[in-house]
Structure formats: structure tokens, C-alpha cells
Amino acid sequence: MKEFDILDRNLSIFGPHFLEASAGTGKTFAIEHLVARLILEAENPITIEQILVVTFTREATRELKRRIRQNLQRLYKNIRENHTDLDYLKAILEKGNAALLQAQERIESALIFFDHASIYTLHSFCYKLIQEFAFETQNGFNLKNPDEHAYVSTLQYAVKQVLRTEMKSPLYSSNQVHFLLSKYKFNFEKLLNHLMQVTKEDRKLDFFPSFIELYQQFLSTLPTLSSVCSCKFIEEIQQLSAVYKQMTDKSYIKEAEIWGRILETKTCSLEEFDLLLVKNSFLEKITESNRKVRAKAIVFTYANLFKELQNFSLPLLQQAKDPKKNFLRLCALCQEKSQVLLEKADLYFPDTIVNRVHQALMEHPELKEQIQNKFQAIIIDEFQDTDKIQWQLFHQLFTPKMQTFCLVGDPKQSIYAFRKADLYTYLSAAKVIGKDHLRHLNTNYRSSSSLIAVLNKFLTKTKSWMPIPELQSYLDVHSVHPISLNLPYVTAPMHLFVAKAAYRKRARWPTISTENQQLFAFIAQEIKQLQIHYHTPKSKMAILVKDRYQAARVVSFLNSQGIASHFKRGVALTQANAYFGFKEILTAVLDPKDASKIKTALGTAIIGWADQQLIQDWKHPCFGLAKIHFQTLKTIWEEKGFSCFFHSLLHTYFDPDTSVLQKLLSSKQTELYVDLTMLAEILIEQEMQGYRGISLLRALNDMQNTLEEDHFATPSQQEEDSVRIMTIFMSKGLEFDAVFALVLASRQKTSDYIAIKNQLIPCDLKDPRCQLALEEADAEKMRQLYVALTRAKYHLYIPVILDQLQAQIPLAEASPIELFLSNWLFQETNWQKVYTLIPTITQDSIASIVSELQPNVTYSLCTQIEPLLHSPKTATPTLIEPEKILLNISSAHWLSFTSIAQLEKKQEKQTRSFIEQNTLCSMPLGAETGNIIHHILEQCFKLCYHCPIDSHKISLLIHSLLQNTLLEDWQQVIEQTVLSILKEPLLIDQASLSLSDLTPDQIQQEMEFVFPTKEGMMKGFIDLCFEYQGKYYLLDWKTNYLGPDETDYSEEALITEMNRCNYLLQASIYATALKKHIQLFSPRPFADVFGGAIYYFIRSKRFYHFHPTFME
Q1: Can you give the pTM of this predicted structure?
Q2: N or C: where does the chain have the smaller number of CB atoms within 10 Å of the terminal CB?
Q3: Are 177 and 167 in contact (CB under 8 A)?
Q4: Of all residues in the chain, what percent carry a pLDDT higher than 70?
Q5: Given strand 15-21, what is the order of strands in its sheet?
Q6: Which DSSP string do the residues of 841-882 spell out, in sequence order?
Q7: Is the separation of the CB atoms in 856 and 979 below 8 Å?
Q8: SS3 of 378, please?
Q9: Mean per-residue pLDDT for 632-645?
Q10: Is the pLDDT of residue 343 over 60?
Q11: pLDDT at 328 exceeding the cut of 60
Q12: What is the spatial distance between Cα 369 and Cα 37, in angstroms, rounded to a whole number?
């Protein structure tokens, strides 16, 4: 097994590499140094822009950018000081001054142009290619930047349109709709969410005939069936109850009457065919297995006909009433509808963008060559998360021509099958690259040596615990080596905590009582022990849970024990029902006289009034009482603040006998209360930063315009000192001092639908395809177990639940730890036999495992405590959202400054001061710097820190906004600059004004505008508009780089830059928009009230003031 030591000067970094990085072995460290060595050691210089780095999440992309840049900065410093501990850099320094100077120039260039670094997610890379090569990819120039909210909103609209317009005859019958809705307990929201999920996955779906098509098939077989006398037929059906069990229901007689009419007349209407779709048909009961033991000997005249109906008609009727197949038919319609709407809006399914590029490469060989010429090296991170199409794209594009082609991943951590990640693609790529190029990272930098030692034994005893079902093979799990640093040695770092329970058929596992009385109780007790004996902060502990429902139960229990905890979500809070409901409630509270707003708020899932209540006349007493409640809540909000308001809201009785809190806690939607509490905490934080009333509602609305909700609120103190609760998927890449892998004991019910490769089909255990897919799902559970067990640094807690009844577990429902322990104890590799062995695991079995792994493993039985009391649960009524209206305006008619301006390209030249000193002029180039500075200034004005200037709050704000960004090292100089911008007077037209003198009602930030022009609709945002002494001004912040010091920002240089960037055109657009707005309420000539435009160049703290012309 060849190791990959990126610091070794003798390691050949060029050519193909397939790098397998086990958990905690420094994968990102290897990548950041590989990028640096490619820049330093290439014979022909490779620029930072020519190294393509691809990963699979935006968060990972940001982290890679940060780590690569910081490493380049450290290397630059080492080279300047002619000293390093890195072996490969020592090799360069040993070559003398010429090599040292070359290395310095290359790293310096990489830092100067780092904003051009080609570090992308896969889909953003493909999006960039589509934009750059629009003609070749057969895409217009109006393709929008990937926008998750716009994409999801369009999908939701498409799904709702299908539900409104397609779920009717002749595509669906009333009984088909009934059976489908009953599958979701007539909860329309559940059906909608499931349709959204499947539509978003964009998988291939089998074709299933519509109701009218099945009806036509039925009519075609009807003439072949025997004729009957309807009366005699009904008599014989009545006699079936003497022979077969469960045949006394009167519904069978009604069904027989319908069949009698059809078979006697040999005709059938659509309505009659629909009536044949019954939950239980007598045709399903006439089987040998259902025959009574002491059945009467009756000779049936129509015995042969019964068989005919069972053979020819029953399968068709079963298909017609099958809710799974009818659901997939709906999904196909939703996919078709959403595809049309997305294309109209210039949005695409994520995979569609990849397919567009892949198709274009096959059709345009010259395009392939152009893209290849852009890059000299490619590094694909998290390669185990890729799929077949993505790999084909990279293989087609890069492998033959690359100086370096490096795939980095770990098949043992391939856990994203639900996102179409394909382990077999990883294994196929490994074969293409070849064994000679396979390298491993085997030194664990994460965990203590004692924990590594016991995990090595635990995970390598058998070679068959991580199966690859399709290949009938197994993944290799190698031992890893601890580092020689002085990490604390922990005795018995791994602990098995064992619970005992009795499995009941179809019940969840573990049950809520098992969780509360045993598992949660042990975890709470152990958290306190870790704090006492090891002084482990709560924020360094993590509990891995199955889903957010289990997370909510853990949070509730820990809270009852006085332990703060925080659930890290994997789903956007802005997509939750609580978000939309809370917005409506706050809107009504701020305007408690508006009947429409109050009714809308009462109908939300949070308050939960039913349709019958809402359709009553507004003068009804119940609305009068509700109006008083909203007025009272508004008064509390205004006088006592948002925290008191939220407490009062929860304890308000909109229903006579039930408060909002009681309704939330007694409903089946546990997550609604959790989500609502999270939203309230965010707004309370916002209020502490200066937001009041309507501005808090705006902050809530603003959350929906971004994918990064945390951007709007810094973590509270409670969150900073709280136990982290998250799913396995959210824990990937993270590490904690102590980990409770609670999820490993949870069993998973088999889904009604199963994904096979890129196809979704109904789950049928008789179908060999489904059996293999379920076996694959169990194989992924083993990889999830590996991820869970490798998050801890010092303490790892593994739950085991023993079934005292030793009941048989349905196939594919075993928990990860049950599957693993069964393999550990019995070494059985046959999947179905494994399930017969799991119930035989006992406490003695656990003791034998611990004995074999001593002294580094211990176990204990969970101590029981009294369960928490829960209120009885009632279902929360749901309302169907009214149809939305979409304006179908072609994107080709929307204009903005960016789309019409032609900017002259400029080659920035910077001196060494750009690298060595943290000055305004040395801030990194590019859009990210501009966005951060803009946001800091925006928040200063938004939170009213400018009037009067609150330097302490400004300092805290800047510190929070610069954390983990490229500008983190420039905090001090940015603070000084912001204070200077606010304090220093602006000399304009012989007048002097200071921005700190402007009150909030004199300022409008990010003023959005839309107005018509001859060419189309002009739209945009103005950074800052303000009124001063009766005149209106517009101000735009600029972070353009003109030179290494302030002398490069003379008035002449500013004018040159204004012309080069077409800022005069931009100002003309802004001025025209401001003019149209002011003229709506001011009769004075705009020329008399317009003070002009101020373009503030932040790197020099200088501005350019002028009066722009207006557009016609």
C-alpha cells in the first residue's frame, strides 16, 4: 500500500493520482499543499487560474479557498524568511537564490490573482462553462446564476399546478385519488412535500398507464370473459363466505352487483370501472391460503369465471388502485411540468446543466480542446460523492491531456446515495486510473492514539463487514497510524452503552420510552461526567441522530436535565412551515386591523384554525376576540420587546381551551415547534442588534433571499456553549472531543419506493432488483457507521439495543450497529442469513466483544429513569395554499447595468506590499472583497450604528462578518476605515456633510428599482440614497484596485477608472431611477433637488462627486 506524503520532496506530484483518504487523515491539508507544489515545481509555470479544484458543496468550496490561500501566505512568508520545516520547500531553498526568487515570484503571483482561482462546486463549474461557451452548449446568454430559492419555488409551483389540473378524469379517477391521499393520511402537505422531493431528485421513472388507458385495456378483455346471470352471480358471491375467511363484509356484495351488471351486459362505463377499484376485492380472498379449514363443500357454477377474473382482470385492477404507481405517475407529470417552467425561467435541474456540457463535448470536439487548454491540472475532491455522468464528463475532458489529474476520496465514506452518489463509479474510475497510481493517506491527525488503536481492532477484525453487493466483494478497511504529537491519552476511549427493549411489529426502534428511560438518560449522565472529569466543553460534544424528529426529542430531554443543546439543521429553515406561518403572524400583529391579514395568520399551521372557522363572517365574535389578541400582542411587542411578545404568543388562547404552545406540543408535527423556536431566537438576536418592529419582519423576509441563514444572525451564547446535535450527513468532515453515535441503534423502515441507480420504482420484495437495492441500502449503513465512528477525538459512545423477545427483523430494516455486530460475532456474509442471526445477539455477546478489545473498551447497561409526560397528540389541520400568479416576462427583456456595460479589461499590477502589509490597498482583489465591504457598511446603517457612531458595536459587527473570510487579517484596518468613512466630512458643492449626521429616515439602502426603456425593463439596486438639506444624493461603494498606495488614487486616476468601468452609465441609470421615484411625491423640478452621485473608492477613502445625465 503506497502512502501519499505530500511534504516529501521525492513524491512525484505530476501525472495521474487516485488518492484514498481515510477519515481524519488530512485530506484538505494534502490538497492545499498539492496546489502549492504544482505552482512551485512545474517546469513551465502554472498559474493559480490553471489549476481546477472541484468539490461538491458550496461550504467545502469556501473552506478549500480559505485553506489554499492561507497556505500560500504561509509559504510566501517562509520563502521571504528563507526558513521552513516543510521538506519539499527545503528542497527549493537548498537550490540557491535563483530558485528562491522564482518560488517567491510564483507564490506572489498566485496570491495577487487568487480571486481568479478555479475552485468550484461541480455544478458551478458546469454553469461557468455554459456561460462561457453559450453557443456550443446550445444555451442562451440569459441563463441565470444557480438560485436555490428560485429553483425550489418553480418546482413547487409546477407540483401544485399538476395537483390542481391533472388529478382528475381521465388521467385519475376519484377512487385512485382517494387511495393515493389515504397513503398520506389525507395530509395534502405530506403529499406535496414528497412530490417535491422526488421531482427535485429528477430520477428516471417507469411508465404506468393512466386511468383511461387501464379502462381501455379492461374493455378489450371484457368480451373474452364468460357471460353470467347477474342474480346467480351475486348468489354465489354470498356463498363464498362459507368457504373462505373474512368474506362477510357487505362491500363484497356491492362489488358483486357491479361485476354482475358488467358481465351480463358486456359493457362497462368509466364510473363502473372506478367502482371496481375497492380496498379489498372478493377476488383477492378466493385463494387456497384463505380457505377455511372446515369449509363447506359447495360447487360453484362460476368457479372457472372466478379464475378468469383473477388471471385477467384482477392484476389490472390492482395496478389501477396501487397508490405507489399512481404516485409515480404524478411524479412524471410534475417532472414534465417543472422542466417546461424551469426552461422558460432559464433555470435547470442541476443534473441538466451537467448533461448539457457532456452533450456539447461530444458534439463539438473543438470545445473540448478549448476547455482543456484552460487548465494544466485538475483536483477533484470528495470523489466518492460523484455519479456516472459527472465522472464521464471529467474523464472525457481531462485525463488524456493533464499534467496532473488527481481524484481524492474515500469509498468508505460514500453515504450520499439519495443524492445519486455512486460507489461503483468511484470503483470504476479507480480501475481507469490504475493500481499503480493508487495512493493512501494513512496517518490519522484527528483522534488520540488509544482511540485509534481500539478502532483499528474494532474495524479490521473481519474483512467482510463493508460489502459491495453488486460485485459480491468488500471494501478494504485499513488500519491507520496515530501522529506522534502529544494528544492526551484517554483510558477506555470507546464505550458501548446497552439498552434492553421488546420489539413490537411495526413499532419504531428504539421506542420513545427506550430513548427517554435508557439512552437519553445515559447520554445526559455521561455529558455531566465528561464536564466534571475531563473538563470537556459542551460545544466539543456531539450527538449523532437519525433525523430532526429524534433531534427534537433529544433537545427536549437534555433541556429537562439542564443541559444546553443545539440542533444543526440539514434542511433550510426558510423552507419550513414555521417560517411561512411566522411571517403571516408577525404581519398580522403589526397591522391588527386588517381582516385579511388576521384570517391568513389564523389559518397558518402554527395557530391552526380550520376552514369552517375561517369562512365565517368577519363580524362573528370569534374574530372579534382574535383581533383583541393581535392588538394585545402588538402592544407587548412595542412596549416589552420581541422576547416577551414571543412568550405571550405561545400562551395566547386563539382557541377557547388550547393555547398556541399546547397545540404545538400536542400536534404530530414536532418539528413545527422546534423550527418556530429557532426563528424566534434569530429575531431576538436581531432585536439585540437594533432591529425594531417592521425591521424585524424585513429581516425575516430577507432570510428567504439567501441560502446562508446564519448570515443574518450570529450564534447565541447558548449555542456556543451547547451540545451539538446533528445527523451523520451533517457531521461529515467535522470532529468533536466526544461523540455519542445514537443514530447507529435506529432501525429504518423500508420505503415504499426504492432508487435503483438513477431510477425510482415501487418497492417489491419479490422483485430481484429491489432485493439488490435493499442490500445496497444496508451496505451504505455500514459506510454510515464508519463515518459515525470516526468523528471522535477522545471519547466514542456506541449504543446497542438488545431485543428481549429476539423477534425476527424484516429485511433491510436492521440498524447499522446490529448489522456490524452480527458480522463481527458470526462472520456471516449471506445477507438474508445475517437477519436470522441478529436477534440472537445477547448481553453475553457484547461482553465477549469488550473482553476481546480490552483495556480500551468498556460497556454498561443503561440506567432507567421515569419517562417524561407527554400531552395527547391531535392532528393539526392544514390549508391548501391558493394558486400563485407567475408573470411570464422573458429574461431577454430584463436589462441591468451589468448586462449592457462593456468593461475594458485591465491587468492589475501590484507590488510586494500587496502581500506583506495588511493595508486597504493590499486587500484581495475580486467580487468577494467588494461583497464583504458592502455588507459591513450596509449593516452599519441598517442597525443605526452610524448615528451616533457606536465604535464598540461596529467593531463586534466587523469581527463577526470577517470570521473565516479572506479579509479576516484586515479587521483592524477595515474598522479604522469604516469609522473614518462615517466621521470624515464629505465636501460637496461647497457644502460639508458627514454620514454620521444622517438619521435613519434620511437613508434608503439597497434601493431596488424597475422602470421601462425602449429596449425592455431596466432593473437594479442603488447602494445608498440619502436626503440632506432638501437635496437627494445617491452613493455607491467601490473597492476597485488602482495601485499599491493612496497616491495612485488621484482625481485623474478616479476619472480614468470611472470611464474604464462605465460608471458614468451606471450613475445615469441610477439617477434616472431616483428621478422617477422622487417625482412620485415631489412637484419640484428634479434638477433643483438632486445633489448628484458620490462614488466612494474605499481603498483610498476618496470619492468622486458629479452630476450624471439622465436616460431618455
Answers
A1: 0.69
A2: C
A3: yes
A4: 88
A5: 118-121, 51-55, 377-380, 404-409, 15-21, 438-441
A6: --HHHHHHHHHHHTTSEEEEEPPP-PPPP-PPPBPPP--PPP
A7: no
A8: strand
A9: 88
A10: yes
A11: yes
A12: 25
